[in-house]
Amino acid sequence: MTDQATATQACFACGTGSPNSLLSTSQPSKSPSVSSSTFSLSFKLPDSRPSSPSPSVFSNSSDRTMSSSSSRPDRTPAEAERDYFSENPAPANLEKYAAQAKEFIDFHAAAGRRVVLVTSGGTTVPLERQTVRFIDNFSAGTRGATSAEYFLENDYAVIFLHRQFSLLPYSRHYSHATNCFLDFLSEGSDGSVIANEEYREKMLTVLRKYNSAKKENRLLTLPFTTINDYLFVLRAVAHDMRPLGPNGLLYLAAAVSDFFVPPERMVEHKIQSTNATDLNRTAAKDPADDEEVFDNFDSSPAVPRNKRLIIDLDPVPKFLKNLVDGWAPEGMIVSFKLETDPHILIQKAQYSLDRYQHHLVIGNLLSTRKWEVVFVAPGQPGRWIRVPRNRRKKSIGGNERLVGVAAEGTETIERPLDPKDLPDGEPEVEIESLIIPAVEAMHTSHIKKNQESLKSLPRDASLPPDQAALLQEAVASG
Amino acid sequence: MTDQATATQACFACGTGSPNSLLSTSQPSKSPSVSSSTFSLSFKLPDSRPSSPSPSVFSNSSDRTMSSSSSRPDRTPAEAERDYFSENPAPANLEKYAAQAKEFIDFHAAAGRRVVLVTSGGTTVPLERQTVRFIDNFSAGTRGATSAEYFLENDYAVIFLHRQFSLLPYSRHYSHATNCFLDFLSEGSDGSVIANEEYREKMLTVLRKYNSAKKENRLLTLPFTTINDYLFVLRAVAHDMRPLGPNGLLYLAAAVSDFFVPPERMVEHKIQSTNATDLNRTAAKDPADDEEVFDNFDSSPAVPRNKRLIIDLDPVPKFLKNLVDGWAPEGMIVSFKLETDPHILIQKAQYSLDRYQHHLVIGNLLSTRKWEVVFVAPGQPGRWIRVPRNRRKKSIGGNERLVGVAAEGTETIERPLDPKDLPDGEPEVEIESLIIPAVEAMHTSHIKKNQESLKSLPRDASLPPDQAALLQEAVASG
Q1: What is the pLDDT of residue A357?
Q2: CB contact under 8 A, B7 and A298
Q3: Which residues, given as ranges, of chain B have pLDDT below 50?
């Protein structure tokens, strides 16, 4: 593969052109029925009582809602998966992305290199097929993009599955930076465009690292927008990663939606209070009588009618269990647990670990996530990883050291920091410079354990030939 | 003001640091009661019937919901405005932004320059105070950022009120571009960082325009995130614009939420199905019994319970009328109407114009918005502005001309284009290069009309002294 091809591959995520290109709304639905049953207007009638909401709160198409197989209460996880992927349309670029991932993984599997899939940014839940409104999950992609850089520095090959236009490794230093991108540049004397001397040194360092990752074909970026894009591509890439055996690492830092609108309940057009026919009729009569509630700027009629929008969402089927059991059974799996309430963080992380039986949950709080995280792994108490006290504030001289000192990273205080005790702004050390070496050490143990269990296998163990080959390959490359 | 100060001002929008910094969730609420009444879980009970939804669909705190003054049906628009701004917390940076806008406007008012407020990007509706989830409106900010550039080229001073991290004038050519930002740069022989020759010429053109706008203090960028940020800052800046008289132009291209969660109904923490106390109790007993529905990755328990999330939103009070009548009574006001259904576009635009009595609605369809828009103004039929047929496709040589030919921009076909007839990708000509000169011409007429009506005033007209001074100033500077 030429450098040019590699560069294109490493960066094609930025090149999808339209911000809409991966929206599942551009996909034909496999379900022909388009219904607005999910979106119901309700009037706050003065006589409606809490114990008996007005019947108008839900449309009378609830029967269809209830018969949706996405919601059947008696399904096994495998059935839920099968139903989800058969009922929801695959994103347009799925095959292209899966093929790119496969080529990338095979390249590094052959070299015995570890490969990490980093997911990053928030997934969206479109509320209309031609999407004007959507539910989003807060994430600029900082955790994922920063982690990806440290994985690259630790010799991993990185598949970066990220929300389109969220932060990317390396370019993150400039895309959402303190200055506008153009403020870093000026016109040279000969009509050239050059980086200002003030920023030159850091920009050169970042550019060299980026070019090195491109040259070695160690960074593949794949974009997603919706929860549906994410789930389809995640499944495909996890499947692609099976040949890596224990050398594969899944580092799931994306902020993934818990709820979605099943396709059979999604409306085609921007949600309106009246449909086009009604509007035509009303407008012909007297526009002032029209009850236009969903105006682009401004919604209520001249006299407010107190109309509300009610959005009714189904839970996203649970896929982490499938990931652990089936999609990438030998890889190490790390998930994140973001909470805002410090009192429930560790319990929620522990609970997720108990349920899915994967390898590590990294817990973090919205307000302190750049200063500390907690590692929750099987059979261990929560282990806090913190930016050391003396590195929490950027030094006055602006001498920014990006890599922290891992040995200093663990404090003995076993409770979350109080956000009030933290300085304003960003810590001097990026906490991902402490997280990634710790994850890498656990991954090394994971690989060793796998090798040992392989060695201890009796020679006549009745492994299927392909699985035995995989294990052998894993030992050879680990 | 020094160039340095101007540069900082023109770009401080990029410098707010945390992507969270403007979220209203960081504001103390004026309403002390925090209730989860809006977020109700419902079980799809097999026996629940459409005509009588389960009582659990709504919590029993609906009484509080119904007493919310945001929802009182008998309010005048002025009361709705007063209530909104007294019940919702002002964003942290409101005073700073208003002061910056005032200084900027006074500077240009003194020079007799026209000032346009361009709003751009989508507003968010947070679902929690410590926001993990929010509802968003689809917009990369292309319309607003591109329009702002053409206003600058047409000698306007531009206040760019935009969604944080959405596209900005000039940097838009690189921030969401076909290439990663770092792909435009390479290492020079002397350790410098330079733009690749391939991109140099265009980058130099963009950089010169950007630096010129900065040097002349003609671009002020102000960020927003939530619908609440937007409404507060819009009101403040519109007030600041009154001294401009008819020289002020409001160009409202932002995709503004129609619905929001009133503060008294907003929960503090990430939405959970059980509260922390319940979780503690359950976890101590047996984690497997805990019904954790809102897991960060994956929501449903081992056996799906078909739990749903129901989000109940109030309409955003109508403010366009206030803008027309009170905030900026002499300025010209342009709003946008985005639809997905071509059959209702013009009627909806006409309807908005009839209701608010402002000057221009620019209608556009999601699928064709880069190729055509329709101008709907009082007493005129819809006027289509289109990228000319021979400029709809970028030429093979990649010779990208950004400025179109306005005279060619109007076609006689009076119905929307069929998206199927349009080429893939982007048109060769940016449609904003046709929109802005047309808006500018209307603004010139608006100013002239205002001057004429002032001249025709009898000399003893009983104008309050300050309004007379404003009008006189408007004539002098127009």
Answers
A1: 87
A2: no
A3: 1-70, 273-306, 395-411, 460-465, 467-468, 470-478
| CA distance linking residue A326 with residue B401, whole number of Å | 52
Q: What is the pLDDT of residues B67-100, one digit of tens each?
A: 344 455 567 777 878 888 998 999 999 999 999 9
Query: Helices A197-215 & A3-11, crossing angle to 10 degrees?
Result: 110
A447 Cα to chain B: minimum distance (Å): 25
Expressed in percent and rounded to 5, the helix, strand and coil fractions of chain B are 40, 15, 40
Cβ partners under 8 Å of residue B475, min gap 6: B451, B454, B455
What pLDDT is stored for residue A56 in this prediction?
24
Residue type at A432? E
B430 within 8 A of B151, measured Cβ to Cβ: no
Mean pLDDT of chain B: 73
B376's CB contacts (< 8 A; 6+ apart) are B337, B346, B349, B350, B353, B360, B361, B362, B363, B382, B383
A180-A186-A190 Cα angle (round to 5): 160
Rounded Cα distance, B10 and B14, in Å:
9
Eight-state DSSP code of residue A182: G
**CA nearest to B194 within chain A:** A194
Q: At residue A31, does pLDDT exceed 50?
A: no
Closest by CA position to B11, among listed B87, B89, B100: B100
State residue B413's pLDDT score: 65
CB contact under 8 A, B194 and A192: yes
pLDDT digit string, tens, across residues A130-176: 778 888 888 889 999 999 999 999 999 999 999 998 999 998 888 76
Backbone angles phi, psi at B2, to 5 degrees: -75, 165
Position B34 scores a pLDDT of 30
Rounded Cα distance between A75 and A70, Å, is: 9
User: Hey, what domains does chain B have and what are their CATH numbers?
Assistant: 3-20+92-261+318-440 (3.40.50.10300), 31-46+54-87+266-310 (no CATH)
Q: In what order do the strands lie in the sheet with B133-137?
A: A125-126, A133-137, B133-137, B125-126
Token pair, residue B437, equals 């000169």
Calculate the average pLDDT of chain A: 73
Q: What six digits make up the tokens of A165? A: 């236009």
Please tell me the distance from the alpha carbon of residue A141 to that of residue A119, in angstroms, as a whole number. Answer: 9
Determine what percent of chain A is predicted with pLDDT higher than 90.
40
CA distance B450 to B443: 11
Query: What is the DSSP code string of A115-162?
Result: EEEEEESBPBEESBSS-SEEEEE---SHHHHHHHHHHHHTT-EEEEEE
Taking an 8 Å cut-off on Cβ atoms, the answer to whether B193 and A194 are in contact is: yes
Element (H, E) at A259: strand A259-260
Does A425 contact chain B (CB < 8 Å)?
yes
Structure tokens at B279: 């979780």
Q: Give the residue carrying structure tokens 């009745």.
A: A462
Give the amino acid at A158.
Answer: V
Cα–Cα distance, B370 to B373 (Å, whole number): 8
Q: Give chain B positions within 8 Å (CB) of A356.
A: 298
Angle, helix B227-240 to helix B77-87, in steps of 10 degrees: 120
Percent of chain B with pLDDT over 70: 67
Chain A residue numbers with beta carbons less than 8 Å from the beta carbon of B297 are 252, 256, 319-320, 335-337, 352
